[in-house]
Amino acid sequence: MERPEGRQADQLRPISFVPDIAPHATGSVLVSFGNTRVICTAMIQPGVPRWMKEQNVPGGWLTAEYAMLPYSTGGGRKPRDISRGKLDGRSSEIQRLIGRSLRAVVDLKRLQANTAWIDCDVLQADGGTRTASITGASVACAIAFDRMVADGTLKTSPLTSHVSAVSCGVYEDEAILDLCYLEDRDARVDFNIVMTEDTNFVELQGSGEEATFSSEEMSTMLELGRKGVREISELQRQAVSSALGDTGKDAAQRLADHFN
């Protein structure tokens, strides 16, 4: 089996993070999984949803929004959701997944009476936009929370662990890690695995694409997912450390450093 990009079955695409891509956000990062690129931001604002006040729920809240920008895919312009008057079903499902994934590793009581708004905007899509969004959002949150601790807004960071996600699948009868678009399109089985940095599961999404899969194939995909998450988690930690120790550069300089 030869993958379209020449990778081994257990090999991730090149993954990178450019922190502080959106200077006005509390924390932000441009995350790239190969040719998939997503801007992930975290903005922390005072106040919580009405239902929390009415039910006297302590702590804060975290919510996420996800969008694919009009130029993010091949084959012509993708209309914005606002032009249709409603969010499409896929975007709604993905942003709920992002929110659930982050709330699994954020102690909302430590967030105090604040709301963390997570925005994930896909600049370029080549498979795995949801997994890249979750992974980048975790980095954006870590940067935002650590800076709030540093300036005294929060006592401790609400982030208890990094969370990341990666796709797996069965392509040409072999289990593979981190599918690009061509592999995702032709895969017999498609899995999305969300895990904490110590490889505890947060969520699994898997299905046969008009096909079935065996327990052995599922076990292989889960092992591939664990391997991928371990590698991604280390990159997340490096990205956060780099951002906090490199606050003097502006967004343009960070992009120049990244692509040169």
| CATH fold label | Ribosomal Protein S5, domain 2
Going by CATH, the homologous superfamily would be GHMP Kinase, N-terminal domain
Secondary-structure arrangement, i.e. CATH architecture: 2-Layer Sandwich
Tally of helical runs? 7
Number of strands: 9
Morphology = globular
Q: Main sheet, how many strands, which sense, barrel?
A: 5 strands, mixed
- Provide the domain count: 1
| Low-confidence runs of at least 5 consecutive residues | none
How far from one another are the termini? Answer: 33 Å
Strand content: 25-35%
Fraction in helix: 25-40%
Alpha-beta content class: alpha+beta
CATH top level label:
Alpha Beta
Overall pLDDT, averaged?
92
Taking all Cα atoms into account, the compactness measure Rg is 18 Å
* SSE sequence, one letter per element: EEEHEHHEHEEHEEHH
Looking across the biggest beta sheet, what order are the strands in? 1-2-3-5-4
Protein topology:
Blueprint: E1 15-19, E2 27-33, E3 36-46, H1 50-54, E4 61-68, H2 81-84, H3 89-103, E5 114-124, H4 129-150, E6 163-171, E7 174-177, H5 181-186, E8 189-196, E9 201-208, H6 215-244, H7 251-259
Parallel strand pairs: 4-5
Antiparallel strand pairs: 1-2, 2-3, 3-5, 6-7, 6-8, 8-9
Question: TL;DR of this structure?
Answer:
This protein is of the alpha+beta class and about 260 residues long. The protein has seven helices and nine strands.
Description of the molecule:
With about 260 residues, the protein is an alpha+beta fold. The protein has one domain: GHMP Kinase, N-terminal domain (Ribosomal Protein S5, domain 2, 2-Layer Sandwich), CATH 3.30.230. It is about 35% helix and about 25% strand. It contains seven helices and nine strands. The chain has helices spanning about 50-55, 80-85, 90-105, 130-150, 180-185, 215-245, 250-260, and strands spanning about 15-20, 25-35, 35-45, 60-70, 115-125, 165-170, 175, 190-195, 200-210. The strands form two sheets. The protein has a five-stranded mixed beta sheet. Strand 8 (about 190-195) and strand 9 form a beta hairpin. Helix 3 packs across helix 4 (about 130-150) and helix 4 runs parallel beside helix 6. The longest helix has 30 residues, at about 215-245. The two termini are about 35 Å apart.
